[in-house]
User: Fold this.
Amino acid sequence: MDFISPTAAALSPSLTLAITNKAKELKAAGEQVFGLAGGEPDKDTPENIKAAAIKALEEGATKYTPSVGLPALRQAISDKLKRDNNLDYSIDQICVCSGAKPAVYAALRATVSEGDEVIIPSPYWVSYPSMVQLCGATPVFVETKAENGWKITAEEFANAMTPRTKMIILTTPHNPTGAVYTEEELRAIGEVAVDEDILIIADEIYEHLIYDEEKHVSMASLSPDIYNLTITINGFSKGYAMTGWRLGYTAAPTHIAPYIKMIQDHCASNATTFCQYGAIEALTGDQSFISDLREEYDFRRQYVFDRLSKMPKVKVVEPKGAFYFFLDMSELGMDSCSICEKLLDRYKVVAIPGIAFGCDHAIRISYCTSLDVLKEGLDRIEEFLKKH
Assistant:
């Protein structure tokens, strides 16, 4: 008897986890490894946030909360969305989840089903296609181009539609490319969605990490019609260095929010109670950590861009957000797994194959690590490129 469902059997394992696990094995064996694969800030969670969670734990915050989250946290999220994003959501429209990843999945589960198509610009965050497949829907990939800043255009969006199209997933700032969509670009895409009555998941988890003169614009803020089609996803992992806390949230129109709540009711009960108190402090307490983190990462970003721009056989687009570079290495004539395997086995540099993000001629490196590691890692990448 076959005990595995066809849906589960069709999923692919995470290449990002496979690479990082191999790197850990090398470290455990005594090898010096230079990790440029990280998807989380290398800073610790701010002390005031940790103190708030510890206080809540000591005071007995160990019981269930409402499945959608503490009312005080949802109010803090509502206030933040109004203050930072010009978005009006009542607390009944907000659902706190155990990370932004479960938030995306809950939004998909509530809205798409078998026979639907979901448009995903490629390269994409590794879990989007699998989540869509888990819902019985079909991911439809639209390849973006480096010369367009790795961003889908409204015309490309419209051309990818079929009668089965239900949704587009849009991420800004973007993982893995660091692309940031402008207000004009988002508005054009949003107007196409309104014309065709297409839902939008707007994943904004990297909103605090934007550089130069760019600014973050929330898709749902652009018009009432776009608002009514958009589910906003955000969380605490990146801007507040709270990856291990597992806290994210959805903010959805009133005709969708109750169904996300029901998904949460039956799948998760609630996000960890005392962690929610830390999240309240994150949103209402001292915000200087965010600006300090952004300043530090901007410095590293500029250093890495300067180094990469001088290297042979690599095309690099300057990222305007997040903490990644997506490097086009098509001149090498190698697939991305082979590139990353050689970098790890011979040069002890950890990078992520672009195929994990739907692009097999590129690799992703991260600059959320120390300057010493960045310098040595880039030295070794440059040596690799010169020899190949």
Remarks:
- The two ends are 49 Å apart (CA to CA).
- The mean pLDDT is 95.
